[in-house]
Amino acid sequence: MPTPRTLREAQAALAAGTTSVVELTRAALALAREKADLNIFLELFDESALAKAAEVDAKRRDGTAGPLAGAIVSLKDNICYKGHKVSAASRILEGYTSIYSATVVERLLAADAVILGRTNCDEFAMGSSNENSAFGAVGNPHDPRRVPGGSSGGAAASVAAGICSIALGSDTGGSIRQPASFCGVAGFKPTYGRVSRYGLIAFASSFDQIGPFAHTAEDVAAVHAVIAGHDVRDNTSSDRPVQAAAPAPGKLRIAYYTECLERPGLDPEIQGHVQGHIDRLKDEGHTLEPITLPMLDHLVPTYYILATAEASSNLARFDGIRYGHRSKEARGVDDTYRRSRSEGFGPEVQRRILLGTFVLSAGYYDAYYAQGMRVRRLIRENTLKAFERYDLILLPTCPSTAFEHGSISDPVAMYLQDIFTVQANLAGVPALSLPTGRHSNGLPFGTQLMAKPFDDERLLATAHQLFPA
Ligand code: GLN
Q1: Whose CA is nearest to atom 10 of ligand 1?
Q2: DSSP character for 36?
Q3: 159-183 tens-digit pLDDT
Q4: For the domain that residue 458 is a member of, what is the CATH number?
Q5: Which of 210, 216, 378, 452 has most Cβ atoms within 10 angstroms of its Cβ?
Q6: Is residue 335 one of the residues assigned to a domain?
Q7: What is the total count of domains within the chain?
Q8: d(CA 174, ligand 1 centre) in Å
């Protein structure tokens, strides 16, 4: 019998008695090893995964198994799991073992998911191609010469390769949705504050959110229901109750941005595909209307000013003294900082720390950081205003399909990958990328839906209806 791909299929097979959680876990571990060339996993947690699987099978026999029994989950290497290594794909944290578990990990385990291993990513989640990992690039399962996207590249690939039914990643400016698009899977960034960040290694704290990857919106929703909700250990976590996952009733009002569809550089086939959905949904009786996003060109610069500022502050703790790699050559405190950080951080992380320190420095703070904060407010207001009239905003996830390894060397060109994804992070709204397209070059790509803050559950249920898998 073929290994089930989705969580729903796995649970059906478990219910039918044709497989067990131990068997699913063994199959996933074997497939991960078979596909080791893709460099998806930095580590497989054989022992704890198989022990958990046996525990879940025992609970199933007693009828006490949780809602994620049968889920085989990978964790991006910036999510802490007690007693397991975590490195943010950086040399600076090499050898570090988590002393506590992230809230999302506790909730996954309490719901009886099996955690298979930790996945490769861009160092400290900074990147759009997974090429910034200190532990090598990841091959896109659809074509290993191409990148899986980033920064949660290994996470997306672990699902696309059929190893895991679920992956957890983090999304600061698109790091769940862009790799989901490149790998042909679903990826969801929840509303800021909906999922606890406790135990997530911080990149830019006012943007970061943990979220799931899966094959379908339905499976995403099942995981979201488990990980969402208030956590006293994250003071930006919202205490609003998580909604029941009912789709929006009746016909919907959906907006799309003219500037996004007309943006030079958007692949014409992706443009045509999104336009096709607009026409189809109109035919199905929904209202679809163009609206404008005059600040489209300001999104990426605003994000990179604010995210690097926050990163420069968050990463100051990795100094070779309190945390992280300490240079063997170092003499004295200043020299220890300088050498440890130069040896421990890769070039992109160093670039961002420098950029972030610059925009926060005395003479430039007002011109860059404070100005960036003002523009962020305008972007947020503009985004929220659209949701006074519309239920959803429909847009492409990325301008292109997965590109070849090494083909984008200019950092600014790489940053522009995020043109359609950073808005949701700047505004704090939920956004989902669904695998809806197949390009004539053979590669998958996604379509993105944004909704108003805390409409996460409705967005997932509605997306499942609008784009049946
Ligand atoms: N590509 C963006 C960046 O490099 C987004 C990263 C992310 O969401 N973690 O910052």
Answers
A1: 126
A2: G
A3: 999 999 999 999 999 999 999 999 9
A4: 3.90.1300.10
A5: 210
A6: no
A7: 1
A8: 6
